[in-house]
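Practice problem 4.
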């Protein structure tokens, strides 16, 4: 079931805790770890799941990343249909989150950041996105693919606006 909840002011702290637990194991591999997705936008309603992306110089580092994350309970899931972005399972007992790894020059990651940063600086657009998410979560209650597809036009429009304006 898709469940959208009001913004939780604890989300940045949960992200920081997750990030801090990954910095040491990924030292020398990941240049930084970004908080992405709706939980990264202050005030935005979201699924109660933190999305974070570890950024590496190239995917040549992926085998080493997989090796360092395994002892922490993360298992590599592949790209899950998103070329250049690799997903990992959430370790048992950890806060709900999605960990991804991608190269710094991944064009899809640039779009993710553009969308996040635009919503952070345009609260009216963020409110419109929240309203859309609530509506679609109700409409596509048990259809994650339908929910995601229904958001795509809105997201694409905002990404294009953000990248054209240089707001990313």
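Answer key:
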């Amino acid at each position: 079931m898709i469940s959208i909840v009001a913004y939780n002011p604890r989300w940045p702290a949960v992200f920081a805790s997750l990030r801090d637990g990954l910095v040491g194991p990924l030292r020398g591999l990941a240049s930084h770890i970004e908080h992405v997705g709706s939980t990264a936008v202050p005030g935005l309603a979201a699924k109660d799941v933190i999305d974070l992306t570890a950024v590496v110089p190239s995917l040549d580092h992926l085998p080493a990343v997989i090796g360092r994350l395994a002892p922490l309970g993360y298992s590599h899931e592949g790209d899950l249909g998103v070329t250049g972005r690799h997903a990992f399972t959430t370790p048992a007992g950890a806060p709900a989150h999605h960990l991804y790894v991608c190269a710094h020059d991944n064009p899809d990651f640039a779009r993710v950041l553009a969308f996040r940063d635009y919503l952070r600086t345009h609260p009216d657009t963020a409110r419109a996105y929240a309203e859309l998410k609530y509506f679609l979560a109700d409409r596509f209650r048990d259809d994650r693919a339908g929910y995601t597809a229904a958001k795509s036009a809105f997201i694409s429009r905002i990404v294009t606006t953000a990248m054209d304006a240089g707001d990313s």
